[in-house]
Write a structure and sequence with these properties.
alpha/beta; nine-stranded mixed sheet; 9 strands; 13 helices; single chain; Spore Coat Polysaccharide Biosynthesis Protein SpsA, Chain A; 348 residues; 2 domains
């Protein structure tokens, strides 16, 4: 039995797959199985998988008809034999020491899950830290994270308002097996969200590696960058709310959920059917009540108010563009003012 099962869903990523597989096959931690679920690829991805499989007997290839990311991950999870589970997206890659550091941490803390940080990069290899990453160190400070665990109640903002990706955690398989609903929604975009909320709330021991170990590709073809699937966010929000209510978490996390709902709806407001999306967003917002505005980030509160105070999509666009132009003008004025002040100081 290997120690870690690395599950990689693969669909038409011939331009990125080799870098992903190289980062896994060359990990400093060697005791792994690599489960590649070919989700009906029609490009050279299948050939690349076969080539790597011939050179590394740790690679297992599972072929399925195209069913989407959630179904591919679920299929990989059913075939996993290791003590720990790790999910990796096939257009991203890992730091070469990632699994070694995660394994060391999960053992020393006997954790159900381990969280860690990530960076984004583009095709020009420009790297940027993400603002939505796990900033556990900002809560607990500079401590020995190899000997420290916590639960969701210590990091409530990370339950619904942080990076949801399944790839930013390593999981104890016994923990996942202890619940019969730890699987990803299928035929639904943003399938990480509900899974993330469940594992965060149910884990009795969470730990953290304070390092950037995952490299997330800013891929314009990614679902996260697509407007076609925007409506799926409403279903994901409903699934999260149902889970919170059915498992008696809602009252405790109501403020966090309200912010999550507003922020997620605003995030995907530019859709292929913007007027219909706006009407649905406004309908959802009008049903809500914000009990404590002080716990709401300014951008979310402003966006929420702009939507509910705009009777039509045209009104919303007009108000949005007016404020956008005003902010742009203020920014230019500030820059000119700073430049003038700088020149005055030079003359002194």
């Amino acid at each position: 039995m290997p120690e870690i099962s690395v599950i990689i869903p693969v669909y038409n990523v011939e331009n990125y797959l080799e870098k992903c597989l190289d980062s896994v096959c060359n990990q400093s931690f060697r005791d792994i199985e690599i489960i590649c679920v070919n989700d009906g690829s029609t490009d050279r991805s299948s050939d690349i998988l076969m080539e790597y499989g011939q050179n590394d007997n740790r690679i297992k290839i599972i072929d399925q008809k195209n069913q989407g990311l959630g179904a591919a991950r679920n299929n990989g999870l059913r075939h996993a034999n290791a003590k720990y589970i790790y999910f990796l997206d096939s257009d991203d890659y890992l730091d070469i020491t990632a699994l070694e550091k995660l394994y060391s941490n999960v053992l020393s803390n006997n954790s159900d899950i381990v969280l860690f940080k990530f960076q984004t990069f583009d095709d020009n290899e420009n790297v940027h830290n993400r603002s939505v990453e796990f900033k556990i160190d900002e809560i607990f400070g500079d401590i020995d994270y190899s000997n420290f665990t916590f639960t969701y109640s210590d990091v409530k903002k990370h339950v619904m308002n942080t990076a949801f990706s399944a790839c930013l955690k390593i999981y104890k398989k016994d923990f996942l097996d202890s619940f019969d609903d730890f699987y990803f929604p299928e035929n639904l975009s943003f399938e990480d969200i509900l899974f993330h909320v469940k594992v965060m709330l149910r884990a009795s021991r969470i730990s953290f590696v304070n390092e950037f170990l995952y490299f997330y590709r800013s891929n314009p073809d990614s679902i996260l960058n697509s407007t076609a699937n925007a409506y799926d966010i409403f279903e994901n929000i409903d699934l999260v709310e149902d889970f919170l209510r059915e498992n008696s978490y809602y009252h405790e996390l109501e403020n966090e959920f309200i912010f999550f709902k507003i922020a997620q709806i605003l995030l995907y407001r530019i859709s292929k059917q913007p007027e219909d999306y706006f009407n649905r967003a406004r309908e959802e917002f009008l049903k809500m009540s914000i009990k404590d505005e002080t716990k709401m980030k300014k951008y979310a509160l402003n966006g929420y108010n702009r939507v509910i105070n705009s009777p039509t999509y045209s009104d919303y666009l007009s108000d949005y563009n007016k404020k956008k132009n005003k902010n742009s003008s203020s920014s230019k004025t500030l820059k000119l003012s700073n430049s003038f002040r700088f020149l005055k100081n030079l003359k002194k």
